[in-house]
Amino acid sequence: MIEAKKIRPYVMITPALMIFVLFAIYPIGYMIYLSFNNWDLISPVKEFIGLNNFKDLLQDELFIQVIKNSIVYMVLTVSGTMLIGILLALFLNKDTRINRILQSVTFAPYIVSLVSVAFIWKWIMDTDYGLLNYFMNLIGLDSVNWLNDTNLALISVAIISIWKSLGYNALIILAGLKGVPKYIYEAAELDEAKPIKLFFKITLPMISPSLFFLAIMNIIASFKVFETIALVTGGGPMNSTNTLVFYIYEYGFRFNKIGYASAAGVILFAIIAILTVLYFKALGKKVHYR
């Protein structure tokens, strides 16, 4: 007979495990199942078509463009958020009253609704009535079509995402900076180490766990972007801001091609999984844990 002590842990985790299976494992499995079928969401009949959805996707020039857009958007947002976040954290890494106020101000955009942020920035970047072009005109610069230029629209959307998540990233990095022992800097100062050398030889290695965590979270979040695209640009102009999740949404709920959209979702899942594995393989051993 199995002892109660051995069963108890499994009983305790069963509710959480059931929720995880119901809301995570099952949807992924059902998405994979739908990707091999042709279904319009209305008819109860699902037609099995094998790998045809995947073949059509890989032959669709728009889908290839969407993947390129998603990768460019990921590079822009992750690099921008991380670099600016590090600089901002270094600036705020002083225990003063002003810096404590600035920390709250910096974090504020992160807790604001993404829908509100999208509408605010859509007005700020408006070509005719936007606040950004208004100030540019005041200093003698011409107005810019931030959201209507195919060369600038994706960059503009990336700027919105960077602004939204910057406070969270900066505070995580700041927490890492606060955890660096002061005696390490004091020992380095005795050796007359320059500030740049201190940053690359001490600061970066010591906060690498925070940077490692933020980078992978930002990569995943960048591939899941939807609200900003849907509310600010709608994937335009000329699909220059169309990303994977918005593409999946359009084909799933506007064109009622659930199997086709599910196949795109499987590819998105595979891309994120591959990038995550490669990221851990490439950088996991370089993280410095004290």
From TrEMBL:
From the UniProt record, report the name of the gene that encodes this protein.
ugpA_2
Organism of this sequence: Clostridium vincentii
Record's bilayer topology term: Multi-pass membrane protein
Origin organism lineage: Bacteria, Bacillati, Bacillota, Clostridia, Eubacteriales
Q: Which family does it belong to?
A: Belongs to the binding-protein-dependent transport system permease family.
What PROSITE patterns does its record include?
ABC_TM1
Q: What is this protein called?
A: sn-glycerol-3-phosphate transport system permease protein UgpA
What SUPFAM superfamilies does the database record attribute to this sequence? Answer: MalF N-terminal region-like, MetI-like
PANTHER family per the UniProt record, alphabetical: ABC TRANSPORTER PERMEASE PROTEIN, INNER MEMBRANE ABC TRANSPORTER PERMEASE PROTEIN YCJO
Transmembrane stretches, start-end: 12-33, 71-92, 104-124, 152-177, 198-221, 258-280
